[in-house]
Amino acid sequence: MKITADRDDARWLAELEPSVDKLTDHHIGTAKDWFPHQYVPWGRGRDFDGPLGGVPWAPEQSALDPAVRSALIVNLLTEDNLPGYHLAIGTQTSRDGAWGAWLQRWTAEEDRHAAAIRGYLHATRAVDPVALERARMAQVGTAAGTTLPGVLGTLAYAALQELATRVSHRNTGRLSGDPVCERLLARIAQDENLHMVFYRDLLRAALEIDPDPVIGTLEATVGGFRMPGHAMPGFAALAAEVAVAGVYDPAVHHDEVLVPLLRSLRIFDLGGLGPAGEAARARLADRLEQLDRRARLFIERRAQALAARAARAGAATGTATGRSAIGTPRTGEA
C-alpha cells in the first residue's frame, strides 16, 4: 500500500530535492574520512588452507563469545547486500540530480563497512570463513526492499534501519571484549548515525510539506518493520541468540530506535494534522504501547531463562566437583 495522499512520488521527489541537495552538502561537510585497512588487525592473520597451503579454520581459534560471533555475522551479511539496497532505493526514488548524488555517496560510504568487518573476522579467525562466504553468496542473491514502496516508504524505512544498524554495531562492539572490534564497530556506527540523520531530516522536511501521509507511512513502517537481513540463511536462530545476549532485542528496538526517532521528529507534538494524520498518530501510539509491553515481557522471560540456565550450570558443576550448587557439603561429606 502506498500512503502518499494526493501527492504522487514525482511530486515528492521534486518538492524534497532542494532538501536532499542541502542535506547532502551538510553530510559531506560533516563526515570524516576513515580507512578500513587501518582498523583491521592484520598482524593477527595467517594463511588459510587452500591454494596457499595454510592452516584450516577451527572453532577453538575464535576468542569471541558465540553470541558476539552471531551478531557479527548478522551485521556483516546485512552490510553485504548493499547492491540490493542501492537498487531498491534508486528504484523507489531517483538516480538523477540531488537524489542520485546522495545515493552514490551513501553507497560509497556503506561499501567500506562489509570490507572492514570481513577483514577483522578473517584476520582474527573469528568465524568459519567457508560458511561465511557461502552465507554471503546466499544473502546477496536475495532481493532487498523497503517495508513500503514509494519515496516516503523508502525514507521512513531507511531512517529506522540506519538507526537500528547503528545500535546493533555499537552494542556488538561493546560486548565483544576486544578493543579492536569495539573500535571498528564504533567507527562504522558513526557512519550509520550520519546516514540516519540524513533520512530523519529529510522526513522532517516532508512533515513540513504535508504531515498526514508522512505519519501514515511511519505508522505502517513501524508496524511492518523487519531488519534488512531477515532473509539471510539461519536468520531466526542468529537473531534469537543476538537478542538473548542483549545486542538487539525488542527492548532495544523500542527504547533505542523507535522512541528516540519519533521524539526527534516531534511526531506526538505536531499540530495541524487532518483526520487521516490524527488517526495514524493514534495507531502509532498504540503500536508503541504494544511493543513496549512485548519488550518488557521479553526481558522478564529472558531473565528467568538465564537464571534457570545458571542454576542448571551450577548444579552440573556441583555434581562434577562433589559439592552442591551453592557450595555447601553434600550429605555424607566431611
Brief digest:
The chain is 69% helix and 0% strand. With 334 residues, the protein is mainly alpha-helical. The chain has a single domain (9-48, 56-319), classed as Ribonucleotide Reductase, subunit A, CATH 1.10.620.
Explain what this protein looks like in three dimensions.
This protein has 334 residues and is an all-alpha fold. The chain has one domain (9-48, 56-319): Ribonucleotide Reductase, subunit A. It is 69% helix and 0% strand. The chain has eleven helices and no strands. It is globular and about 65 Å long. The N and C termini lie far apart (73 Å). The model is unreliable at 1-6 and 320-334 (pLDDT under 50).
What is the CATH third-level topology name?
Ribonucleotide Reductase, subunit A
State the CATH class.
Answer: Mainly Alpha
Number of DSSP helices? 11
Count the beta strands: 0
Whole-number tally of structural domains: 1
Which CATH architecture? Orthogonal Bundle
Overall structural class, as computed from helix and strand content, comes to: mainly alpha
What fraction, in percent, of the residue positions are helical? 55-70%
User: Which term fits the overall shape?
Assistant: globular
Strand composition percent: under 5%
Rg is 23 Å
